[in-house]
Amino acid sequence: MAETRFPDFTNGEMKLGDERQVFAKSVVDAAIQVYVNGRVNDYLPVRLMGQWLRGVDRLLPDSTLSWPDRHRLIAELLYLSGMRLGGLPIKAMQFVGLRDDLPDGYQQWFSKAQEDNKLRSPADHVQKTLAVFGPNLTWSYEPLKSASIAQVHLDVTWERRAAVAKVQHPHVKDQYLADLDTMKYLGEYVNHHDEAKGAAVMLGALAEKLRPTVVAETDFTKEAENQRKLREFLQGIATVPEVFAATTTALVMERVNGMTAAQVTQAWKDGEKLDHFGPRQRRNLYSIYARMVSGGRFQADPHPGNIMSPNEGADAIGLLDFGQCCEVTPQQKNLFHAFAVGAPTSEFEANNQERNLEWLKSLGIEVHTPEQAQATANLLFFGQKSPMFPDTKAIDPELTPLLLLVLYLSRFENKVVELRKAVGFEDEANSFAVLMAFRNQIAVNL
């Protein structure tokens, strides 16, 4: 394996936007060569990658790879590179890792980004960040879990109550904003390839809509406000940790006992038959998200590390991480209502291509043909096998928070059922469980 040197926060590597883009493009160029040729013929991208990933050349084959091995190598290159960069690439892998319709290599490597990674902020940075809370807070550096924006310290008490402390990585806001430009650029760069058609539109819409949310997501006082409001809104419905204290770069909150969906997923992969996230608990999860959307404010980052099965009952749901929240605007209210009212809830409706074309049009998603409308709906909303990107002419950026939410949850449904069945449960995936929850809640209340 290549030697992965993780970002040196103390030297400000997270802020090197131009250099990050050059590195990211070299990774994409190498991946394209592996995909098309089964090997790398032009070693310029490899030399550029080697400046960030020492020993990456040792991963490259001497002979032409089979298709499964091509996918595995591409996934490994993308994973190592994403972990080298931190930030937005980790978010992207968390999302793509749920795509159960992609080759195994991508699921295998990207799922590693779901729960924890090896990014670590320096101890002196953490000490300085948490010192403002004074004697009310006691903490140890280890154990901790690290994510794309922050790391969470687990051995913490607040006024003798069990707590966790979330500390933002240095420079992460500047790095995230630079990476949004890179994401848009790379979408345009690869769009001419058949397998990447639609990347320019999809990634451009995401970049436009995510830019203002990055500013909010890197201000933990705003996250604390979102968390307090949703804790009150979901009281008696879902478990949301109580906020104890917050600054712009640190957040101290109640520790909730239980297992995240990422932890449960890993246990299933290890062969443990844990009875979490069965059909009723999943329906409860989707209903909670639909209720938040209809209430006008929702947590918009439901990857498995942010969803919990708390120790409070068989069907209980806990939610974590409220940095990426969406406060529904009047324009979004109309789009989200159109989504819920028009959402198909049966195979017959879902396979009506003309109906899907009109439905997508009402959502601000423009496609060329009814067949493309079907493929786009399969990818974005039905959780079915589909291309990597939807081949669309345009996507209204205002729709993207709901689009990502439904895409995450529909893939979650598929992946959980697949893994539960593998350890002996008799589940069946319901392609319309998420859509039905949203139709029931939003069409009536929004």
UniProtKB/TrEMBL annotation:
Source species, domain of life: Eukaryota
GO molecular function, one term: kinase activity
Key words, A-Z: Kinase, Transferase
SUPFAM superfamilies xrefs: Protein kinase-like (PK-like)
Domain named ABC1 atypical kinase-like: residues: 139-339
Name of the protein in its database record: Protein ACTIVITY OF BC1 COMPLEX KINASE 8, chloroplastic (ABC1-LIKE KINASE 8) (ABC2 homolog protei n 13) (AtATH13) (Oxidative stress-related ABC1-like protein 1, chloroplastic) (AtOSA1)
Species per Swiss-Prot/TrEMBL record: Cladocopium goreaui
